[in-house]
Structure formats: structure tokens, C-alpha cells
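Lab meeting, item 3. Inverse folding demo.
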């Protein structure tokens, strides 16, 4: 980090090495060094929050002034907790074909951005919750000129219902709106797989892939 990103001024004592399961405790505000046995307690006092996420893939460097304004928007978000996460791509990710598996975001992507805002469930009302959601939507709109286009791709595991949801008819044309963003050219292949193995659309949710004929 000192060699590649000296401008961060990161110190060794600010870094913590931990396993994945230990990171779960860390992100849920347990004390450092807390026993993993606490996860077996169903009445454990986990930090309960509501949250809204959106994501983008970046194919060209974002200008420095845009990054500064993007970071400045974090100060607009009051009461809630907001941040960005950048997931670097390249390397092995770029060596795998877009069509190899369902996940298509491969060569050409510099990194993925997660926009995240969360707030306390028990302390805020609907009006305040809507304010947090509007904030992340405005940020997402602001970033439009600087991210991947045609389609404006997004990551399935950061599910975003703003880009569309299934109606009762499970229309394929409608589903392609978000299907192409999540899966790009793999969406049509996934429709064929869905049609073969789940023709009655038993397994369904707001943004599931519909079969060619739903009953």
C-alpha cells in the first residue's frame, strides 16, 4: 500500500487481518476478538439496519474532480451512514470469457462501484427512510456519464429493484430490462435454461428470469 497508494497514508496499525467469518463480526459491530460462538445465539444483539444499494461498472478512469464531488456527496447524507466500495477487476477476471458462466462482467472493466446507505430501523420513520433512498438515487444519476453504458451494467448480488421488477405475467421483454444489466448477452441463454428446467416458473422472485411460457 505504501508503494502503490502512498497518498492514503495508511499505517500498519490501522489494518486488521482476519478470516471471512471474523469479518462478519467486525461489520456487525461486535467487539474485536469476540468469540465466534456469539453467532450461535439467535437472540444476539445484532445491529439491525435498513439499507439501499446500487452499483456500477467502470470502464474508463473517472476524472479526479468528479471523484472529489462524488466523495463530497457523502457529507450530504445526514443521520444515515453512507459509503462507496470499489472492487478492482482485471487479472484472472479478464481471462475468463463473458459467456463462460452467467456472470459476464469481465475484460474491459476497471472496477465496480457499490453505492451504499444504511440507517437504523428502529429510530427512523418512513419519511426519513425515503430521504436516504433519494440520496443514493441522486448519486447514481450523477454518475451516469462516467460509468459503463449499453447497457449500464450492475451486479446481481447488489440487487436494485429500481431498475425494474417482475409483474404477474413474468414478461420476458420486461425482464430483459434488468436481465441485460445483470447478465448482458447471457440473459437469453439463461431464459432457455429456465424454460428447460423450470417451465412453470415455480422458483420466482422480483427479478427472477422467466421461462418462455409461464403458466
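The presenter then showed the designed sequence:
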Amino acid at each position: 500500500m505504501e508503494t502503490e497508494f502512498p497518498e492514503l497514508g495508511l499505517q500498519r496499525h490501522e489494518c486488521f487481518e482476519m478470516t471471512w467469518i471474523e469479518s462478519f463480526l467486525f461489520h456487525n459491530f461486535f467487539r474485536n476478538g469476540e468469540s465466534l460462538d456469539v453467532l450461535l445465539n439467535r437472540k444476539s444483539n445484532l445491529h439491525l439496519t435498513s439499507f439501499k444499494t446500487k452499483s456500477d461498472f467502470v470502464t474508463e478512469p473517472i476524472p479526479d474532480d468528479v471523484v472529489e464531488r462524488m466523495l463530497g456527496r457523502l457529507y450530504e447524507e445526514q443521520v444515515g451512514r453512507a459509503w462507496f466500495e470499489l472492487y478492482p477487476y482485471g487479472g484472472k477476471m479478464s481471462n475468463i470469457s463473458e459467456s463462460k458462466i452467467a456472470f459476464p462482467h469481465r475484460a474491459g472493466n476497471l472496477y465496480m462501484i457499490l453505492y451504499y446507505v444504511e440507517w437504523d430501523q428502529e429510530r427512523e420513520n418512513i419519511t426519513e427512510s425515503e430521504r436516504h433512498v433519494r440520496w443514493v438515487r441522486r448519486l447514481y444519476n450523477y454518475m451516469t456519464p462516467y460509468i459503463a453504458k449499453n447497457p449500464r451494467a450492475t451486479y446481481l448480488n447488489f440487487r436494485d429493484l429500481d431498475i425494474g421488477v417482475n409483474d404477474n405475467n413474468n414478461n420476458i421483454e420486461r425482464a430483459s430490462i434488468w436481465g441485460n444489466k445483470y447478465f448482458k448477452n447471457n440473459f437469453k441463454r439463461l431464459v432457455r435454461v429456465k424454460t428447460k428446467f423450470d417451465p412453470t416458473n415455480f422458483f420466482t422472485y422480483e427479478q427472477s428470469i422467466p421461462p418462455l411460457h409461464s403458466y
